[in-house]
Write a structure and sequence with these properties.
It contains 14 helices and no strands. The protein is 77% helix and 0% strand.
C-alpha cells in the first residue's frame, strides 16, 4: 500500500513539474528569457512561488529543463526516414522547426558547456554519421560540423524571422535588405553586391537544408576516401583543395 502511495505522489510530482515547464515555455515563447520570472509564472499557474521552487530552485534551472523538454519532443517527432543521410535531414528539420517555434532554445543550445539537450542532438546525429560509414577518427569532426550548422543556422534564421522588420512583411524586408546590399561600396563589398538578387528570392528552409546537404557531401567524401584507403588528413586536404586540383 505504501508503495502505491509513493508512486501516486511521484506521478503527481511529475505532472506538476510538466505543468510548470509547459507554462514556462509559453512565457518564453511570448517574451523570451526576460519575460519569465517566478512571479509571472506563479500568476499564470495561480499558485505561489514556493510551489514552483519546490521543483526548480532557480530560473536558470527551469529554462534548462524547458530546453531539454523542447529538444526531446522535437527529436521524438522527427519524421521516420530510410537511410542514415535522410535520418540526418529529418533530425535537422526537427531541430530547425523547434528553434523556429521556440527561438530562446537556440540561445540556450549555443551556450557552453553543452548540456543534456545539446548532447541529445549530438548523439542522434552521431549515430547516423557512424551508420554512414565515416571512419571513427573523423566521426567527431563530421558530427560537430553538422551540429554547428543545424543549431547555428537554425538560431540565426529564428532571430531573422522573429525580428520586428520581418514580422511586418518578409518579402518587403528582403527587398529592402537586398536593395541595401546592392548599394554597398563596390570595392569593399564586391561579392556581397552580386548576392543581392539571390538574397531577395531565397527560401530560409531550403537554404538551411542545402547547408545540411553540403556538409553531408563532405562526409560522403570522407566515407569514400576511407573505403579507398586514403588517410583522414589527406582526404580532408583533398576536400578543401581548389576544384581544379581535384581533377
Amino acid at each position: 500500500m505504501a508503495k502505491t502511495v509513493r508512486g501516486s505522489d511521484q506521478d503527481k510530482g511529475a505532472r506538476a513539474r510538466e505543468r510548470i515547464i509547459d507554462a514556462a515555455v509559453v512565457l518564453l515563447d511570448a517574451d523570451g528569457e526576460a519575460g519569465l520570472t517566478f512571479r509571472t509564472l506563479a500568476t499564470r499557474l495561480e499558485t505561489g512561488h514556493g510551489a514552483i521552487q519546490w521543483y526548480f530552485s532557480t530560473k536558470g534551472e527551469l529554462i534548462t529543463a524547458a530546453t531539454d523538454v523542447a529538444v526531446t519532443r522535437a527529436l521524438s517527432e522527427a519524421a521516420p526516414a530510410a537511410g542514415a543521410d535522410n535520418a540526418i535531414r529529418a533530425v535537422a528539420l526537427a531541430v530547425y522547426d523547434m528553434i523556429e517555434a521556440h527561438p530562446w532554445v537556440g540561445d540556450q543550445l549555443a551556450r557552453p558547456p553543452w548540456g543534456s539537450a545539446m548532447l541529445k542532438i549530438f548523439e542522434r546525429l552521431g549515430r547516423q554519421v557512424a551508420a554512414l560509414g565515416v571512419p571513427a577518427d573523423a566521426q567527431f569532426t563530421a558530427t560537430s560540423a553538422l551540429l554547428i550548422h543545424i543549431v547555428g543556422a537554425g538560431r540565426q534564421e529564428a532571430l531573422n524571422s522573429h525580428s520586428p522588420q520581418a514580422q511586418t512583411d518578409r518579402q518587403d524586408f528582403l527587398d529592402d535588405l537586398a536593395a541595401h546590399w546592392g548599394q554597398l561600396d563596390a570595392d569593399e563589398y564586391e561579392f556581397t553586391r552580386t548576392m543581392a538578387g539571390q538574397l531577395r528570392g531565397h527560401d530560409d528552409r531550403a537554404e538551411f537544408l542545402a547547408g545540411v546537404d553540403l556538409v553531408l557531401s563532405g562526409i560522403e567524401h570522407l566515407e569514400h576516401s576511407a573505403a579507398d584507403g586514403v588517410p583522414r588528413q589527406a582526404a580532408l586536404a583533398h576536400l578543401l583543395a581548389s576544384p581544379s586540383s581535384r581533377q
